[in-house]
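Recall from the previous chapter that SMILES is a line notation for molecules. Here it describes S-adenosylmethionine.
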Amino acid sequence: MIAAPGDPSARRPSGPWGSDLAAELYARFADGIARLERFDPLVATLGKSYAGEERRLLYLMVRHAAPELVFELSPKRGWSTLHIAAALEDNGRGKVISFELDPVYGHLARSTVRRAGLGHRSEVVVGDVRDMLPQVYERWRRDGRVSGIGFLFIDSEHSAPFATWYIANLFPLVVPGGLIHVHDIEAAPERVVSGAATIPEPLGEERVLAEHLIAHREAYRWWSVAAAVRDSAYLERVRPWGGGRLALSPGRRPHPIEAALGMERNPTLWIEKLGAQEAVAYPYRPFEPLRVPLGRRLRNVIRRRLAFVYVPLRERRRERRRRAKAATPSA
Ligand SMILES: C[S@@+](CC[C@H](N)C(=O)[O-])C[C@H]1O[C@@H](n2cnc3c(N)ncnc32)[C@H](O)[C@@H]1O
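With both inputs in hand, we obtain:
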């Protein structure tokens, strides 16, 4: 039985995890995985940094957890949002609430899910997530709509201070058995902490997260997708169900590591909370606020108001440039 949100002492008995769980989910939701191909034409415009294996696993983990509410930090153009919303729709329940700093991306994320017919599964909140999430969470908690976080998706600012904020304020709200996805984590925490990770992530999120997990290893278990996709045993298990396809899709700009490897890197870390929920109310542990100059703040207000005219023009220009670049033979 999954621990009820808000029950601070409950613990979830361990089920399959890592490759075992992935293989089980691929087999169970094979039809849903096949239908994700409807989003493939969007890879070139939306899916530039979120690769095939991690998007399939994101879909599968949302199917598996069947959450009522997913907190997403952050959607950008809505590629991850689309996969979360598609899984919620296939579950027949749940909503994703996404926090995006940039008003233009907020507008784009909304239109991405709406165009896929999934707008009813999604809500996008524009602003610094560190300011907006406490407002939304506390309003909903008082209304009895939330009493913890069951599914947390993190692919936002990849800095050490940002990681310190979410570990202090969001991890305590996660319920036992709750899932946390962190993107752009290239190496497993033990490798980061022991110094065995050869390519340190430059902004510091990876190290802060790794140190927290290792220091509280009894309260979490985790699984590195970046490590899994380099393991032939994992790939053999999931390939019969359409998993483990690591060829770089046409139109996707490879990360320098991918360009060197000649395949996708999939830097996702999946974490399951095993320990107790430490807080039901938002903890309000402090953070360094963004210093946005007045000019930028005003520009953002205008961009937000005019997004419905400005964004389609901007995206058409971006698409024209992308096509022109794709048509130019490389030297
Ligand atoms: C790596 S992108 C997210 C990619 C997205 N998950 C996808 O699948 O395409 C990071 C996003 O985080 C947003 N962001 C950065 N700092 C933020 C903050 N403090 N609050 C809210 N959003 C933030 C950026 O504007 C950007 O859109």
